[in-house]
What we know:
By secondary structure, this protein is mainly α. It contains six helices and no strands.
Amino acid sequence: xxxxxxxxxxxxxxxxxxxxxxxxxxxxxxxxxxxxxxxxxxxxxxxxxxxxxxxxxxxxxxxxxxxxxxxxxxxxxxxxxxxxxxxxxxxxxxxxxxxxxxxxxxxxxxxxxxxxxxxxxxxxxxx
Length: 127
């Protein structure tokens, strides 16, 4: 299957490209994370599983993996605040938005280079 024909990949790419048009930060954050979740295709234990996959897929060594795991969990927590209406402090909002968008772009490029998303068997192999 052509990766561009994959609805999950297309969703993530569209969010990454057009997200800047949304003026409301919580909506932008929710949109970015919907793209991340679409790429990884997970449906439960999202905070833990997304963070773990990000660390494994994008980390360059053990220290980088541990840093990515920790930071992705924190970003996911900020995403949850946005999605559930708690909002973000101004001091954390813009930085979290930029980091989350960078993460979405890194994952999109990772899967573009790979030519396909993770299969269910591959996901299960990580966990």
